Amino acid sequence: MKKELRAPECFDNAFAGISQAREAFTPQLIPREVGTVISVATGIAKVSGLPGVGFDELVTFPGDVLGIALNVDADEIGVVLLGTSGISTREMKSSARAGSWT
After folding, report:
1. SS3 call for 19
2. Among positive and negative, which fits the CA dihedral 78, 70, 33, 26?
3. What is the predicted pLDDT for the residue at 58?
4. Which residues pair with 61 in a beta bridge?
5. What sign does the CA torsion over 60, 65, 71, 74 have?
6. Alpha-carbon distance 90 to 72, whole Å?
7. For a tag site, which of 24, 33, 70, 99 has the least CB within 10 Å?
């Protein structure tokens, strides 16, 4: 015979399951496209090869350098680099990744 749960026990079990699932979840940035860094100057990187990048989208570079796409043209995008100083195209190894949180 199946044991019937009282309302408080039922809620406790449901919330415990939700809590376990929430603690196990780790959001990740998954790259969708890889582009090429054309130039870097004064905190702005020009990148080609990221046709799906939208305005205000997060772009990552090697070395965990982050940027925000602001000038989105058909051929290239302008990315404002966040928290970097004196970084060059060579240091970025000529690649950029655009992604979204999942």
Report:
1. helix
2. positive
3. 86
4. 65
5. negative
6. 23
7. 24
